[in-house]
Design a protein that fits this description.
Length: 287
């Protein structure tokens, strides 16, 4: 049974109200998926329009934008009575690295190797900045001052750390773990990194997104549903390498992303004052 199109606005607000969904994380998805492909900056008024459909208050959005400035993702300027936010090199680089993981359609090819970052020798401020930032980019804590990622290369990890905290020089290594599930049980990995749940995570993704009827979705809701689709997929694909369980979910995402992009283009063109593409290049195999 599909969900009536008239109910999509309710679906979007209910999705955004889930405990694990934060306004800051949704803004990161919006910036990477919707804005960076067509713009180098965004007005606060535009961001408020882009987040209104999720039910976020203006105050929450403004606070989240301030956090992204503090995190090094944005810089801001006042133009008359308006605020404009520019995307930093860190935002562009992290988004570019994430794109290959989120929108990639290649078959599973993970070698089982993890990239490790040891933050022991860093000043407390630099260490906290890196910990706060990299948890949005597929890194999980396996110790008090150790981060691990199955999707970031050592070179990418070093590059990100230099952008986050320019004077930081964390030790970087690679490793393979014989039994990740046991390490999770022993408390080395954060709870949402349990590899045993990857198939369940992809199935939940399919269960949530496949019933929604896209035949008559208005442009605003189409944009929101596309953001939801990418955000949910990001949570899985940045934390775990490609797996055979991913294939049905990626096929679903590719089909729905194309349909939603076409439907959302009129809304985004008008709001952002650009000729917004109805098909996004290099996403889910789109050439």
């Amino acid at each position: 049974m599909t969900t009536p199109a008239a109910a999509t606005s309710t679906i979007v607000e209910q999705w955004a109200a889930q405990p694990h969904i934060s306004a800051r994380s949704v803004l990161v998805t919006i910036i990477g998926d919707t804005l960076i492909p067509v713009a180098s900056s965004v007005w606060m008024s535009q961001m408020l329009s882009l987040t209104e459909v999720f039910g976020f208050s203006d105050r929450l959005v403004r606070t989240s934008m301030t956090r992204l400035v503090n995190d090094g993702w944005l810089t801001n300027e006042r133009v008359g009575r308006q605020s404009r936010y520019h995307f930093t090199e860190l935002a562009l680089k992290e988004s570019a690295q994430a794109d290959g993981r989120i929108y990639g359609v290649d078959e599973a090819n993970w070698t089982g190797e993890w990239t490790l970052l040891f933050l022991t020798n860093l000043h407390a401020n630099a260490r906290q900045l890196i910990l706060d930032d990299l948890r949005w980019n597929g890194f999980v804590r396996i110790g008090r001052e150790v981060l691990a990622s199955p999707s970031s290369t050592p070179e990418d990890a070093r590059s990100l750390c230099r952008l986050i905290a320019p004077d930081s020089k964390p030790a970087v290594a690679t490793a393979s773990f014989a039994d990740v599930e046991q390490l999770v049980d022993d408390g080395f990995f954060t709870a949402d990194s349990d590899g045993a749940d990857i198939a369940q995570a992809y199935q939940q993704f399919i269960t949530q997104h496949s019933p929604i009827d896209l035949s008559k979705v208005p442009p605003t809701e189409a944009y929101a549903l596309r953001t939801m689709l990418v955000h949910d997929l990001r949570r899985i694909r940045l934390r775990w390498p490609d797996a055979l369980e991913a294939e049905p979910a990626i096929e679903l995402a590719a089909d729905r992303y194309a349909k939603l992009s076409s439907a959302a283009a009129p809304f985004l063109s008008e709001l952002l004052a650009v000729d917004y593409p109805s098909a996004m290049h290099a996403r889910f195999g789109n050439s």
